[in-house]
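INFO batch 0412 | record 1 of 1 | parsing
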Amino acid sequence: MSETACHIIVKGKVQGVFFRKSTYKKAVELGLKGWVRNLNNGDFEIEAEGPREAIGKLRSWCGEGSKNAVVSKVESQEITPKGLTDFRII
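INFO prediction complete | emitting tokens
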């Protein structure tokens, strides 16, 4: 199982709809390390690392997001893993 890392920006109605908490729960469920945060422009940012398959599942999940989210776009790019040790909301 190859390890990878990904930087993801989610656009749309993604703040005030429990997107951070839902993403956190999904990432932990998938065994990923990294962080999530809201951005000042209304977007949502994720950095995650772990097994390539789990990263792919998180990316796919971001297209739907939390129950009341309305995702208009998901941008992602592969980055170099940093050896993060947990997943957190920042």
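INFO post-check: The first helix runs from residue 19 to 29.
INFO record closed
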